[in-house]
Amino acid sequence: MTRIISKIGRILTVSGVAATLALSMSSPASAGAQAAYRVCAKAYVQSSGWTAEQCANAGQSLSVGAAGGGRAIEAVQMAVAGSRLCATGYRQGSGWGAEKCAASGTRITLGSAGTGLRLEAVSFGVQTGTICGNSYVQGVGWNPVWYCGVNGETNGIGTTGQNKRMEAVSFMICRSAESC
Question: What is the model's pTM?
Answer without folding.
Answer: 0.81
